[in-house]
Amino acid sequence: MAYIQSYKDQAWLLPPSIEDLIPEDHICFLVESLVDSMDFRVFDLKYGGAGHPAYHPKVLLKILVMGVIDRVRSSRRLAKNARENVVYMYLSEKLAPDFRTISDFRKDNPGTVKEAFRHTVTLGKQEGLLDLSHLSTDGSKVRANASNRRVLTKEELEFLLRFVDEELEEWAQQDASEDKAFGELRGLDQLPGKSKKTVHKAAQYYIKKLKERGSVFKEELKGKLEHAQEESEESVSRQTSTTDPESRFMKNNKGKIELSYNAQITVDNKGFILSSDVCRNATDTEQLQPQVLQVEENVGPLPEGIPWSFDAGYFESTNIKFLADKKIDGHIPENEKRRVNSYDKKHFIYDEEKNEYICPEKKRLRFLGERFDKQKNKTVRVYKGEGCIGCKAQSECTRREDGIRYIKDFPYEAQRNAMRAKMKTRKAKELYALRLRTVEPVFGDIKENKGLRSFLTRGIEMVRTEFNLACIASNLRKVKELLKENNRNAPLKGRARRKYANKIGMVPEWQGCPV
């Protein structure tokens, strides 16, 4: 059996260009063309003047984007690749930035990463790769970089803040045993039994760290607890994470409740991401309008009557009215997970002339007045049933102790009813089914192939940057696939690559990319 001869110990007389070691159709050339087309002049002012020279931001951005494509998200592994992997060595222009430099760039430049994502949409539009015959919007929960156990209630946060401010250094200097000291902490007896144990463990840890690091730790800890206290005031949850206070408890698709963020995307009919965002809301209701406005900003004016599908979580009266005002052909099903009986509101008939509802038992509900619903955060019209007492369907119709049925009429109720009727048609069901091959696979690709089942960073701005990098990687992969399907060349090496970038208008005149 013969083997291919190798040349392990033979030296190269002339070292080849790194570019020659990379396949011509490698996606790294597309990454390079995209980033080189961006305007980095704002960094010229930032890094101008005296001091040590800085790495050019385009070098760091290329490394970050390529890392997500390769499912390499750790800044330490990216720094290692820049020293050892020919693709990363080429993109880093033979530099080897430290992992802290890469991490700090990702942390300090969310706007630059967001602009790079917009550039991918611009690239898709200029190349004619977008298919706006149908758009889909959806959200997905992504686990936060925070432990579900390291959470504190508002009362515990208030107590620990007082302890850090007033007593931490005092107890750290005492010679008495810590257990005895903690029993004498002022105000500890006012907390519930479970909170006493939680606070006791936290205080022990704080004292230990204060002895190791000194007053620097105290200032850091105080700022961290104050941030957590601010977030606890905004959160509807009773508990706040101390590792990532901006995360929220959400239920994922497996029914597990954990600290997470809500990632939002809108895609075209080919799965090209047109807008992306991350929010802290457990529900999708308030994210429809921001997604529509961001798509208009990124893509430009949309065709009138464009079909657009949304998940059931977006079904809300003001959202439906918003789509109608925008002349968008929206498709939003109502959430049918809950049990619907014969006396659900949808089975009540509205008498517009008398401004009354008629129940299935032919009894009337009179208009009672308007009031503000705190749970829905909107003004509703309330209707009160007549003849409910003694009705045979009373127990099935209402759970109120007085046995009287009330109905809340939300704003734009007519639009809600029209959407319900529309989603029952065969055409609407077929169009809505397109989401299964557009937006759902994109989330699957981001989570499985890009490794974004949980965030590495903390804080809403940081996780938005991390998610935008994943969306950039997804779009660039889609560009490469679509160009190949259309029998068109993706960016090539050297002169051919630069000609390609100039041809599609990706390289602005001010950059003067030579050919």
Please provide a brief summary of the model.
The protein is an alpha+beta fold. The protein contains 20 helices and 13 strands.
| Low-pLDDT residue spans | 492-515
Count of domains = 4
Strand content: 5-15%
Radius of gyration: 29 Å
Question: What is the tally of helical segments?
Answer: 20
Distance between the termini: 49 Å
Let me know the number of strands: 13
Would you tell me the overall average pLDDT? 82
Outline the biggest β-sheet: 6 strands, mixed
- Please state the structural category: alpha+beta
User: What overall geometry do the principal axes of the alpha carbons give?
Assistant: globular
**Helix proportion range:** 40-55%
Description:
The chain is of the alpha+beta class. The chain has four domains: 18-129 and 486-511, no CATH class; 135-143 and 254-333 and 423-449, Nucleotidyltransferase, domain 5, CATH 3.30.420; 151-241; 345-410, no CATH class. It contains 20 helices and 13 strands. It has helices spanning 28-36, 41-46, 57-69, 75-84, 86-91, 99-108, 110-126, 154-166, 168-173, 178-182, 193-213, 215-234, 288-299, 317-325, 394-397, 413-422, 426-432, 439-449, 460-485, 494-503; strands at residues 135-143, 151-153, 239-241, 248-251, 257-267, 273-279, 307-310, 329-331, 349-351, 356-358, 364-373, 378-385, 406-409. The strands form three sheets. Strands 1, 4, 5, 6, 7 and 8 form a six-stranded mixed β-sheet that branches. A five-stranded antiparallel β-sheet has the order 9-10-11-12-13, with no helix packed on it. The chain has a two-stranded antiparallel sheet with strand order 2-3. The chain starts with 27 loop residues before the first helix and ends in a 12-residue tail after the last helix. Residues 492-515 have low confidence and may be disordered.
